[in-house]
């Protein structure tokens, strides 16, 4: 009697197993099938925090996969339900669903590699981004100069200039300008944490801003890294003596960013007389804001300048990029300064 009762149960288990295997085979077969009626690549944007169900529906709506339910089942069985990375994806017509899944898990978006060099201004960065169709230059500059955004980012100024950290970024065409600024400032904060160490805790927002201004000048002056802390020492020493910083870099900034002139190959004496708050030949102290977006070398030099009594420097060798440093104006003049533009 007991044996007869076990037989139907065994039969049901076998039927269920065969049905499950059949469903899995069917699901696998569907995953191997390319979605029909699509001859061109399809682009699908997956938002941060999107659920597997919504992603599957979006892929089906774009005719990337033949079945949203089977695709979602496959992702769950693969343990990849939460492994989908946000971004914009491009799917070729011949791509089977399992390859679609692999792209989503790898985060193989259409992001472009964008290199932002050290010492560029926000305007120059905007041109780089626009040239690669990442974002419109005017939209990026509007985000940079948005006082509401700078306040959210903890920058004590009306602009994010100086905090747009030079780095290699992976950005998608048509990216949101504000998000790019947020990402660049986040990279700046991460770099500062590494450079400053415990010193960062002693700097309030305004003190850090002044260091960024100083670093932005150092960035535009030095050519070899070992000179950066020495140049920083000259500026620090001049500030302590209430001497004008007399940085040619600030004059070039005025000429190019405020007056719209091309970058000069030579700074003439007449240029030094241009009236502008950023001209450190006419105004004592630091300029009102950063003149570039400095990298790690300049930020480190601004935070940890060399201990010297130097008050002057000049380019000593244009081929090597080395500067010569002097303690007095006489030493500086004897070093070979040649008046230009007279």
From TrEMBL:
Positions of transmembrane segments: none
Domain of life: Bacteria
GO cellular component: plasma membrane
GO biological process terms held by the UniProt record: cell wall organization; peptidoglycan biosynthetic process
Pfam families cross-referenced by the UniProt entry: YceG
EC id: 4.2.2.29
Signal peptide positions on this chain: none
Keyword Mitochondrion tagged: no
Site (Important for catalytic activity): 221
GO molecular function terms noted in the UniProt entry: lytic endotransglycosylase activity
Main enzyme class: lyase
Catalytic activity: a peptidoglycan chain = a peptidoglycan chain with N-acetyl-1,6-anhydromuramyl-[peptide] at the reducing end + a peptidoglycan chain with N-acetylglucosamine at the non-reducing end
Keywords: Cell membrane, Cell wall biogenesis/degradation, Lyase, Membrane, Transmembrane, Transmembrane helix
Functional summary from the UniProt entry: Functions as a peptidoglycan terminase that cleaves nascent peptidoglycan strands endolytically to terminate their elongation.
PANTHER family membership: ENDOLYTIC MUREIN TRANSGLYCOSYLASE
Family designation: Belongs to the transglycosylase MltG family.
Protein name in the entry: Endolytic murein transglycosylase
